[in-house]
Amino acid sequence: MKIDVLLIPMSARYAEMREAALAVEDAGFDGLWTWDHLRDPDDGSGPGVPEALTALAALAEVTRRVTLGPLVLNVSNRHPGLLANMAATLQTISGGRFILGIGAGGSRRTQYAAEQHALGLTVEPDPVRAERVAEAIQVIRRLWSGDRSNFSGETYRLERPLGYLRPDPPPPIIVGGFGPRMAGIAGQHADGFNTQAMHPQLGDLVKIARDAQAAAGRDASRFLVTVFAGMGESWLRPDSRGRQMLERVGVARLILLISPPFDTGEIRRHGRLLADARAAAD
Fold it and tell me: What residue numbers bound the domain in which 203 lies?
């Protein structure tokens, strides 16, 4: 199982993210992620939130080994044509280390809806936002493959697309979500699914996603299951109950969250614990 770190961007400054990213790579973690948000929902007086893909592009330049990705992009924030080009560019900058994580964004019931409303954007009902994710993936894949045919969905259209940047290889696409609707969309259209490590229905959601992957005619064994949790020493030990539960479900990447101000000494200490646990398991 890969063990990654997510840098929570609320009130973070890029210089802090850069320093933390270098520590994450130096400490031996496998991947580096950040969230996609437009503002800090808790404190309007802070320095703001660095934009996810811009920050990841810069971090791709200063790192050499770790996988990078957003967890997860709100498809309402970027047209999938723009997102396809941004992701293809990031795949090139990173030398093939990028994973594209996308999702439906926060619902009307969440605190994150306020960041959309403040900009005059509409937060659609859950089924509409979910279908938008499925359509966005179809648009992105068509542009990445060089497919010149037209596409017409409920939200997006393509009119004889030609000449768009094509990543080689295309980044895996993972869909984030917390319920069966998004798990099914992940399985039918994407390459993976992301949810909470301690989700009470984790096994059921993974089964829904894998079944949908198989029903779509693709190899469900290649489906990438990723989960997130707060940084904790027990998650670094393969023999812990939590890690063993994730292994049974077939989780490929465990993404551990840390908040600013990022303590690089603590990142490196956790890296040493991870290295010791891996050495003991070998």
Answer: 2-281
Residue 276 makes CB contacts below 8 A (sequence gap 6+) with: none
For the beta carbon of residue 241, count every other beta carbon within 10 angstroms. Answer: 9
Task: Please tell me the pTM assigned to this model.
Answer: 0.95
* Calpha distance 146→48 (Å, rounded): 37
- pLDDT at residue number 41: 72
Q: Is the peptide bond before 41 cis (omega within 30 degrees of 0)?
A: no
> For residues 2 and 33, is the Cβ–Cβ distance under 8 A?
no
Question: Could you tell me which of 244, 224, 243, 225 has the C-alpha nearest to residue 233?
Answer: 243
Alpha-carbon dihedral 54, 88, 262, 243, rounded to 10 degrees: 150
If one counts every other C-beta atom within 10 angstroms of the C-beta of residue 141, the result is 16
Which two structure tokens, joined as six digits, stand for 25? 């790579």
- pLDDT tens digit string along 109-148? 887 788 888 888 888 999 999 999 999 999 999 999 999 9
Number of structural domains (the chain) is 1
Residue 73: give its domain's CATH number: 3.20.20.30
| 166 Rama sector, left if φ>0, alpha if ψ -120 to 50, beta otherwise | beta
**100/147 Cα distance (integer angstroms):** 20
| Sequential DSSP letters for 212-242 | HHHHTTS-GGG-EEEEEEE--GGGG-TTSHH
How large is the C-alpha radius of gyration of the chain?
18
Short-list 235, 234, 213, 236, CA closest to 223: 213
Question: Tell me, what amino acid is at 31?
Answer: G
- pLDDT tier at 43 (50, 70, 90 boundaries)? low
Residue 6 in tokens: 């997510």
